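Input for the complex:
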Amino acid sequence: MFNNTNNNDIENSKFKFRREYISKEKDKIASNTFDKETMITLSKFFNKYIIKKINYIIAKGKEADIYLAEPGDAEIVNNERAVILKLFRIETSSFFNMRKYIAGDPRFNKISKTKYSLVNEWCKKEFGNLQIAIKAGIQAPKPFMFKNNILAMSIIMNKDKPAPQLHNVILKDPEKVFDKILTNVKTLYKNKLVHADLSEYNILIADNEVPYIIDFGQAVDLRHPNALIFLKRDILNISSYFLKQYNITMNIAEIINKILKTNN
Ligand SMILES: Nc1ncnc2c1ncn2[C@@H]1O[C@H](COP(=O)(O)OP(=O)(O)OP(=O)(O)O)[C@@H](O)[C@H]1O
Ligand SMILES: [Mg+2]
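Predicted:
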């Protein structure tokens, strides 16, 4: 009896310690990603019935945390199996990097002065860019809603899971995938947009090896003074990957010329 009580006490204090530890860790996570403003912003997505539950985090990018959520009752998410929430971090955002892609884009005639408003502008920019991409018919996530530093969009899936990045997949038909990516870049260009951060990390491979382009925050209007430099860099990045990984050789100058001709 004495021993039992003693053991129970030890067990109870162990549990108490563990409970306190977990609760402190949860507070830390919450205070890092879900600060008060973010919580208020998130509530708007619930109020508009875009989501009804946040399930779990699926990725931590350089600029944002990506969460998987359950769709709410809004018509726009009716046929979705899940909604992706992209929460742009305010504190760790690369302010100077973002400015490069906003300054010079005529859609944004004045640059926000504070980090907070610049990140919100960035989120709005990604939403607008995704709208252009979807309207143009390219494979990209459908944008549902943005508010402040949070963007809701459709999930890209592969075998019932969030789709993997191109660099984590061994393709069966790499030529076909490469060709589809280039067609998307061309269509985007025709619709006056350059992705400007195209790489094996910003392409997801959905079912049937269909490539989807994601992460459109930095995409610029063709009138941006560096649009052509960004387009060339995109083509170079993606061609280098297919050369390194699949030994596919392409004439980069020819590809770029073909894309440039689409607008004439
Ligand atoms: N719509 C989506 N469907 C499925 N997975 C997604 C979607 N959007 C983002 N992801 C996952 O989250 C990762 C990070 O997303 P994204 O590239 O948009 O954020 P980021 O902060 O700009 O990231 P990074 O700085 O690493 O480029 C993606 O590589 C992908 O694995
Ligand atoms: Mg990315």
